[in-house]
Write a structure and sequence with these properties.
about 0% strand, HTH_TetR, transcription regulation, Homeodomain-like_sf, TetR family transcriptional regulator
C-alpha cells in the first residue's frame, strides 16, 4: 500500500476540518460522531484518528480555526489603532461571531467542550489579544486596559449570542459603541 504524500495528508486534514466544522456547526459537538465525519469527508475513521487523535482533538482544531476566522475579520476591519478602529473591530467581531458556521462552535460548544480556561486561552491568542492591543494603544482610555478588555470581551460574546438568538445586530452594535465611548477620558 502506498503512503500518502505530505500534500495528500494536508489535503485530508483540511477536508476533515472543513467537514467537521460544518457538522459541529449544524448539529453540535454531542451529536456528531467520528464515523459521521469520516463518512462525510470520504475517508476512514482511522484517518481521523491519525490526524487528530480523537473527537476532542478534532473539535479543538475546528475551534481554533473558528477563532482564527473571527480574528481575521477583526484584523481586516480594524487595521489601525484608535477609537474608530476599536469600534470597527468590535462590530466585525459581532458580525463574524454570529455566522452560522462559527457561533455554535465558538460561543456555545467551545467553552463546554474544551473547558472555560482552555477556551479563554484560545480566545486570547486570537481576537481577545487584538482587543487588548487596541485598548493598550489608546492614550486617553479612562480605565485600566485589562479591565476594559475583560468587560468588552464579555459584552461582545454575550451580544453575539443575543444576536444569534434573534436580537437586532444594529441595537447590539449601538449599545457596544456607547460602552466604548464611555471608556474615553
Amino acid at each position: 500500500m502506498a503512503r500518502a504524500t505530505k500534500a495528500q495528508s494536508e489535503a485530508t486534514e483540511r477536508r476533515l476540518r472543513q467537514v467537521a466544522r460544518e457538522l459541529f456547526a449544524e448539529h453540535g459537538y454531542a451529536a456528531v460522531g467520528l464515523e459521521r465525519v469520516a463518512e462525510a469527508a470520504g475517508v476512514t475513521r482511522g484517518a481521523v484518528y491519525h490526524h487528530f487523535g480523537d473527537k476532542l482533538g478534532l473539535f479543538r482544531a475546528v475551534l481554533t480555526d473558528a477563532h482564527a476566522v473571527i480574528a481575521d475579520a477583526v484584523a481586516q476591519a480594524a487595521p489601525g489603532v484608535g477609537w474608530p478602529a476599536l469600534k470597527d473591530g468590535s462590530a466585525a467581531f459581532l458580525r463574524a461571531a454570529v455566522q452560522p458556521g462559527i457561533r455554535r462552535i465558538v460561543l456555545v460548544d467551545g467553552p463546554a467542550v474544551v473547558g472555560w480556561e482552555s477556551w479563554r486561552r484560545m480566545d486570547s491568542q486570537h481576537s481577545a489579544h487584538l482587543l487588548a492591543e487596541g485598548l493598550a494603544a489608546l492614550d486617553d482610555l479612562a480605565v485600566d486596559p485589562g479591565a476594559a478588555g475583560a468587560l468588552l470581551g464579555g459584552a461582545m460574546n454575550e451580544a453575539a449570542i443575543w444576536i444569534a438568538d434573534g436580537g437586532e445586530p444594529e441595537l447590539a452594535e449601538a449599545a457596544l459603541n456607547r460602552m466604548i465611548d464611555s471608556l474615553r477620558r
